[in-house]
Amino acid sequence: MTASTQSVAVSKSSKRRLPKDWKSKVVQYATNLILVIFFIFPLVFMIMASFKPNDQIFADLRSLRAFLPVGDLSLTNYQAVFAKSKFPRFLFNSLFISVTTILLSLIVNSMLAYALSRLKWAGQKLVLAIIIATLIIPGETVIMPLLLLVSKLPGLSLTEGITTGWLNTYHVQIIPFIVSAFSIFLFYQFFRDIPKELDEAALVDGASRFQIYYKIILPNSGPVIATVTILTFIGAWNSFLWPTMVIQSEELRPVMVGMQYFFQQDTEWGEVMAYAAMITIPVLLVFLLFQRSFVQSIASSGIKG
Amino acid sequence: MRHRLFSLIALMLIASVLLAACGGAAEPTAAPAAVEPTAAPEAVAEPTAAPAPAASGSMTKLGLWTHSAGNEGEMEVITKMADDFNASQDQFEVVIEAFPQASYNDSVAAASVAGSLPCIIDLDQPTVPNFAWSGYVQELPVPADMLAGINTGGVGLYNDKVYSMGQFDVALLNYARKSVLEKYDIRIPTLDEPWTLDEFNTILKTLKDSGEFDYAMDVNAEWTGEWWPYAYSPMLQSFGGDLIDRATFTTAEGVLNGPEAQAWGEWFQGLFADGYVNPAPADDQCFLQGHCALWYTGSWSANDVVAALGDDALFLPAVDFGNGPKIGGGSWQWGISTACENPDGAWQFIESVMKPENVALMSNTTGLVPTTAAGAALTEKYAEGGPYQIFYDMSNRYTVMRPPTPGYLRLSSEFEQAAIKIRDGNNVQDTLDDAVDAINQDIQDNNNYGF
Question: Do the Cβ atoms of B16 and A174 come within 8 Å?
Answer without folding.
Answer: yes
